[in-house]
Amino acid sequence: VTLAVVCLSAFLLHLFDRCRRFQKSAGSLHPVICALAATVALQWASQVLHLAHILAFETWGISGSLPGGLADILFMLSQVVSSALLLVIAQGYTLDRSKDSLVDRAKPIVTFIALLHVLLVGHSIREGEHAERHHDNGGLVGWTLVLVRLMLYAWFVSGVRLLQRTSDLRLQPFLAYLMTVGSVYFLSYPVIYSVVQMFAPYLQHPLLEICMTLVQTASAFWLSELFLTRGLYYQVSTLSESLLPGGCSPFSSPSRKKCD
Predict the structure, then answer these.
(1) Could you give the CA distance from residue 69 to residue 18 in angstroms, rounded to a whole number?
(2) What residues have CB less than 8 Å from 55, skipping those under 6 apart?
(3) What pTM value is reported for the model?
(4) How confident is the model over 134-153, as pLDDT tens digits?
């Protein structure tokens, strides 16, 4: 946990510095970049609380359930925000200016998903330790989270496939790339959760926690590279309209394609 806190602290500082420099050159930060920063901050806060929980137990021999429970909730919220980013992009947000209002329509759905995750984790914490459950997300709660992730994955795939059918050739390479990375992310929890059931009970919780921390950190790093570099996503998205001085929108009409 200490190593995770140190690495995430360094990554968070680096990300904020990149965002600051990006904002200085662009004048503002796009909502997807703000959401990414929130994702990393939530994960960092979760790991800090986990560390505080462990240190309290090592120092005094006791530790309340509040820090650990709050850490689990924050980590779940970090995953929800990452999932929401992938979902809105899969529906066309930032790829088509006609979908700019998609975020407002998606907010109630994302809020419901976040509350569902919080309620599931909270219910798991209130149950306490049971003989048949070897970690906080064990039993019915764990399999319910698996089902939710599979439903989100189905939504993600349907969105990307619709874009692939209706978009021009310029978007196809990015959509194929998004499908691959998004599939790995959404299926990671169901696969990891299923696999850890084959291990000894005392290994299930640490394995699940370590693997999901690595997945979430890797996704945050990938999203930061996606949003903050002039790569494939920048070239086909509406972010290029206003992010950097002199940028031209790939979706602007010929009469408007002027560089500053």
Answers:
(1) 32
(2) none
(3) 0.83
(4) 445 667 788 899 999 999 99
